[in-house]
Structures are given as structure tokens and as C-alpha cells.
Amino acid sequence: MINHNYCVILAGGGGSRFWPVSRENRPKQFLDLTTSGKSLLRMTYDRMSRIIPAENILVVTIDKYADLIRKEIPELEDRNLLLEPFGKHTAPSIAFASYKLLRRDPEAVMISTPADHVIENVHLFEQTIENALDYAADKNVLITLGIVPTSAEANFGYIQMADSEIRMGEPVKVKTFTEKPDAELADVFFKSGEFLWNSGIFIWKVEAIKNALETLAPEVTCLWKGWDRILNTEGERKFLEKIYSDSPTLSIDYAVMEKSDNVWVYPASFKWADIINWDSFCEYASKADKDGNVLKINGKQIIKKTGDTIVYSGGKDKLIAIKGLKDFIVIDTDDVLMICPKDDKSFSDFNSELAMPEFEKYR
Amino acid sequence: MINHNYCVILAGGGGSRFWPVSRENRPKQFLDLTTSGKSLLRMTYDRMSRIIPAENILVVTIDKYADLIRKEIPELEDRNLLLEPFGKHTAPSIAFASYKLLRRDPEAVMISTPADHVIENVHLFEQTIENALDYAADKNVLITLGIVPTSAEANFGYIQMADSEIRMGEPVKVKTFTEKPDAELADVFFKSGEFLWNSGIFIWKVEAIKNALETLAPEVTCLWKGWDRILNTEGERKFLEKIYSDSPTLSIDYAVMEKSDNVWVYPASFKWADIINWDSFCEYASKADKDGNVLKINGKQIIKKTGDTIVYSGGKDKLIAIKGLKDFIVIDTDDVLMICPKDDKSFSDFNSELAMPEFEKYR
Q1: Are A8 and A210 contacting, i.e. CB atoms less than 8 angstroms apart?
Q2: With the CA atoms of A237, A239, A244 and A248 taken in that order, what torsion angle do they form, in degrees rounded to the nearest 10?
Q3: What secondary structure, in 3-state letters, does A12-42 show?
Q4: Interface with chain A: mutation pick from B337, B346, B351, highest number of A CBs within 10 Å
Q5: Residue in B300, B324, B337 closest to A320 by CB
Q6: Cβ-Cβ contacts under 8 Å, B305 against chain A
Q7: B96: number of CA atoms within 13 Å, CB side?
Q8: Is residue B97 within 8 Å of B171, Cβ to Cβ?
Q9: Partners of residue B315 in chain A, C-beta under 8 Å
Q10: Which residues of A touch B353 (CB under 8 A)?
């Protein structure tokens, strides 16, 4: 029996908010932020492999990360690695994956997931996904997973449900998508019980998202005219270069989800986190010691008279000996040592200097 | 014409007051503390090579540093590397070197110098040494170099002159040697004009120091009975093992210099420093930037909002990005990162932990 379920991992994002651990050439999805021994990308792939057959898992990324992807997922078939010439955010990536999948399997049902989120309680996750896949295969709807919030987090987007009574395992119609709220509004959202965190994990029939994109984001899809002739031929690369060079930069949330009246959300309560910066790293880790320190140290450590400090060190053989720091961040990598106060970690000073040619290799 | 001048570099000292840069297996003399690209030992050797022919320069050290010595001074002849089975301070080392030299050249005149001091104004240094060598060859005296003090330094030993009128280039009789004074006494010494810093650099006929040792430190030299038969034979190693196992631990200052009434000092004004810990490292460096930072960083640096802080990093390719530290010491080596307040850098906490087996490799 043919398995029509596919997973598309979006792994083209950049960003260096975890500098100096993340870099332009090694963004967050390639990092082992949870110090599990696996990168977030690899953890995403492994998690999806429990639900979707490996030959049906695709990764979309940009050219410059191709080698990193192959290193992280050596078993990935070439046809399952979709390379974008430039990054133009998620709407073009999902259009690309959708057209590719339609060439392969017109009945395809697809899960789209970021490569850089942390998910625990994998069993609950699987259950939710399986429910959603069944629902999506059956109906022409767009489905998103919404996480039942555990705090008034201002760093995540929110989804408002049309019906505030949550029945786990059953989809609820979506009323609105909202961008990251301010702290006050986040508090209102949290207390109302009508809002879920937007996980960025979507499930839909490929035909359904293609139609939604063509209807709601024609400025993206008009560029793809002729895809059914050109994809998977020698002309594909040139075709993509033209599309990506002309395409607007657009997120799938903005292009489709916020506009469609056909979106359903599956409330879910597995532990989910988008670790977006060292602050949320701290919150996620939440295994602070009695002094409030969050220590992710691969080697040995002697930490004295130090409180509310994050220490991250990748070196297996390195001893970290720290005394007398309060509210600091200490990050030690092969080629950068960064020490700065927690409340002054925009690194804007560093970044302006890092823009200088002599610092290029550290960006 | 035979050159009877020899230099003996004492390079067997241990200590880890520069931990984590210095280690039990890599003490100060092997470090490039001045970031000149050369270790203090190598700088000492190069400095002496300008005065003494290479074949007349000896190094005394303990077994476990033999390889480090050979690495630093690959051209050192085997017969010029004197290996002590254990470290028993400087009196036994100088006895050893003296007996060895007497076998080689009964007319030998010897300079004895620590391996781990910093000396600048090399031309002045050479002049002083040459004057002292001439004087020592001519008379049966023990000579030391005394540095005209530039501050009331409490970390150095002092030499009181019998005559407080300094005539550069001429020796003055020594009245007393004193150990490191307290701050108040150091101030009295400094202001009196009668005191010089004890450089630990000595010049004497080998016959003269041998006689002085045999008279003033018989507890050391009695162990060497038979040296003239046994040294340079197959029995030497066993002979040394017995001597060093039985020998008291004794400095040449205590054993001879403080007791002899035959000691003369050459006042000298070359820049000299015994960098004994990170504090004196700071004083020596004294090239603090406008914020009072002393930065010895081999790679690149971005230092912001940071003051009165020492940063030492050995990595050529490592970027050091620091913000918001005040009165700290940051030391980054291949296998240790140490961060601690300047006024809490005894590392006694660290050291007690370092005594644990799991930290052995970092000691």
C-alpha cells in the first residue's frame, strides 16, 4: 500500500541570536542546544521518522546549508533535499515543496515543520500528528498544531480558537492568528483560555495548500507557472533561480494562514519550545541549579560564588573554572569566547564590530 | 684561548601561580608570559648567549621537565643538561652544577641565573654581567646583581649595601640579605637608598662557591663526597638519586649568601622583573589601556565596558568578546577557561577541587 504521508522540514532559516554558538554559516537548527548529542535538525528528523517513512521525509534549505544538512542527515536521498537558491521565508519554501510533492504523488498529505524547535513528550506529539493527518486526508482543510500555553509568553505567536472549549484530539476552528503580543496582551491571551501558542507545525493535503497559496498568495505562485513541465528536468535549477530572485519574502502565516477561513487547530499539550535566544534558552533549560545558574558544559566545571548565570561550553576536554559572576552569559566555543551581562546581551556592540572585515570569520 | 666563563640556568622550579596558564607540568619558565613569542626560559638562554658561548651554557632542571627543556632549547648539548631526580631548591642545584663544572674546567667562572625572570635593556644587563665576570675571575668573592629599586615592592627580596653611595659599574660590599619585607618595611627600604632588589643572579668562580658551600652548607655538600670519582661515570645517576633523596631542601640565599661575609653586589639599573603572579604580571605589563585593562590576547578581541581587567588568551584564531567586567581576570587556554575577580584569585577554591582525581589533568 502506498503511504501518502510526507513530512517537509523547513531548514533554511538563518540568524545568529545564539552567537557565538550560532553563526551565519551554522544557524540554530544545526546546533545541539539541548546538549542531547544531536542537533535540533537531527532531533526533528528522528522525531518525524517515527511517524513518516524516511523516503517520504524532505528537507528544504538554501544552497549554503546543503553540506550541513547532508552531514546531519547522511541518509537523506538527493531527491528529498530541496535546495533554494536564496532564502525568501516560508511561503516560497512551502510552495516549492508542494509543487515537488504534487509531481510525485497527487494524493500527498504533508506535515510542514520547522527544523529548530524542541519537542518533548514525543508520544503525545505522535498522537496529535496522527489525528491531524487522518483529518487532513479526509477534508480539504489547513491544520495547525496549537500548544496549550503554560505561561503568558510574549515571544511566541498565538492562535485564537473560535470555540474556547478544548477537546484534546479534536480540531477547533481558528478565529485569528496573531503576531507576538506585548507582555500585557500576552497575559490577556493566556488568561482568556481562548488562545494557543502557534507551533508553526502544519498539516494539509498538498493539493489544499497549493490551492490556498494560488488563491491567497498569487504574488508567490504566479512565478511558478509551468512548474509541472519544468520541475525534475534539467531546466529546474534555472527556473528556481528566476523564481527566487523575483519572489517576495513572505511567511506562510502571513501569506495564507492569517487570511484563510479554512484553518483548524489541533490543541496539543506536548512540551514544545522555540528557543529563540539565550533568554528562552534559560527558560527552556529551567534546570537552573540552586544558585540560578544554567550550565551546559560539555567538559568539567568548577563554578563558585556565581549566580543567575548561563555558561555554555562545547569543549569535551575543557575545564570551566568560574568565580564571582552574577547575571552573566559565558559562551565558549572553539573560536570565540563571549562574556557579557545578561541584560546587555543584544551584542549590538559586538555585531557592529563583527561587520568589520577582520571579524568576518566569526560572524 | 679557552673561555672559562659559564652560565648555569636554574630551570627546575615548579609552581602554578599562573594557573591555568602554568601547570605542574608546565611551570612559569616555559610560558610566554611577555607574549614575545618566546618562553621566559628561551629568552634567558638567548640573553645569556650574547655573553657566554653556547657550549658553555648549562641548564639544571628536574627529570620531568627534561623534554620541555629540549623542546625550548633544541641546540642544548646533552652534557649541558643537568637532570636532578627531585627538586630540592637552589643550593643543591648550584652544588651539582659546580661539581660538574669543576670536572670540566677548574678555572671556571659561573653566572647562575633563574630561568623565569624578565629582563629588558639587555645592553645594560650585558655590561653589568661583564664587569662582574671580570671582578669574580680576579677575586675569590661571591657576587650578586642588585637592582636599583623603582618602587617599594614587597614581593621581592632585598639586599642592604654596606655603603649607600651607588657607583654604577662598581661592586659594593653586602651588609645583609633580607627576605620579602612587609609593605611598611619595603617602604622604609625603598626610601633609605641602602637597599637593592635581590635579582637572584649570581657570579662567582666555581671554586669559590664550592668552598663557600662546603664551609657554610656542609649538610648539602657532605652528601657529594666522592663526586670527583663518580660524576661523568656510569655511577652518576645512582649517586645523584641517593644525594637528592637525602638532601635538605635549601635555597642558595639561605645556605650561603645570607651567611657569607664575602658577598659583593653590583648595582644595576636594567629593567628586571620576577613576575610571580597575575598581580605582578599586571604591574610588569603596565601597558594597561585607558580603561586599566591588561590584554594579552593572541587572537582578535572586542572588549567593551570593561575595566581594570586582565585578559590572557593563547589562541591565535580565537576571538575574545567581553562586555561588562570590572576588576576581573579572564584566562583562556586550550583546555581551561578561568574567570574570577582580581581580589579573589587565590584560586584556593579551585585548588582544593583540583586536588580531586577527576581534575588531575588540569593541575
Answers
A1: no
A2: -160
A3: CCCCCCCCCCCECCECHHHCCCCCCCCCHHH
A4: B337
A5: B337
A6: 344
A7: 32
A8: no
A9: 335
A10: 302
Distance CA B6, CA B136 (A): 12
Cα→Cα distances B244→A142, A177, B173, Å? 85, 82, 33
Q: Which residues on adjacent β-strands are paired with residue B160?
A: B176, B195
pTM, two decimals, is 0.76
Q: Which three cell numbers stand for residue B89?
A: 631548591
Q: What is the DSSP string of B323-362?
A: ES-BSEEEEE-SSEEEEEEGGG-S-HHHHHHHTSGGGGGG
The rounded distance, in Å, linking the Cα atoms of B29 and B32 is: 8
Q: How far apart are the first and last CA of chain A?
A: 49
pLDDT at B211: 97
- Please say whether the beta carbons of A213 and A220 come within 8 A: yes
For the beta carbon of residue A322, count every other beta carbon within 10 angstroms: 25
Question: Helices B90-104 & B236-246, crossing angle to 10 degrees?
Answer: 150
CB-based contact, A316 to chain B, within 8 Å: no
The cell for B14 is 615548579
**Stretch A98-102: mean pLDDT, rounded?**
98
The answer for residues whose C-beta is within 8 angstroms of residue B260's C-beta and 6 or more apart is B142, B212, B216
| Cβ partners under 8 Å of residue B42, min gap 6 | B72, B73
Shortest Cα distance, chain B CAs vs residue A335, angstroms: 4
A307-363 pLDDT, tens digit per residue, is 999 999 988 889 999 999 999 999 998 899 999 998 876 666 677 777 788 888 888
* pLDDT for B78: 96
As beta bridge partners, residue B5 has: B109
Helix (H, G, I), strand (E, B) or coil at A112: strand
Partner-chain contact B340 A323, CB within 8 Å: yes
Distances (CA, A) of B154 to B86, B114, B181, B270: 30, 19, 6, 19
Task: Work out the number of other CB atoms within 10 angstroms of the CB of residue B46.
Answer: 12
From B156, B89, B126, B122, select the one nearest B7 (Cα to Cα): B126
For the residues B139-162, what does the mean pLDDT come to? 93
- Cα separation, A23 vs A30, in Å, equals 10
- Nearest Cβ partner of B349 from A304, A320, A341? A304
Q: Which residues of B touch A341 (CB under 8 A)?
A: 323-324
Give the pLDDT band of residue B239 (cuts 50, 70, 90): very high
Three-state SS at B47: helix
A214-239 tens-digit pLDDT: 999 999 999 999 999 999 999 999 99
DSSP B104-149: H-TT-EEEEEESS-EE--HHHHHHHHHHHHHHHHHSS-EEEEEEPP
Query: In terms of residues, how long is chain A?
Result: 363
B357 contact residues in A (CB cutoff 8 A): none
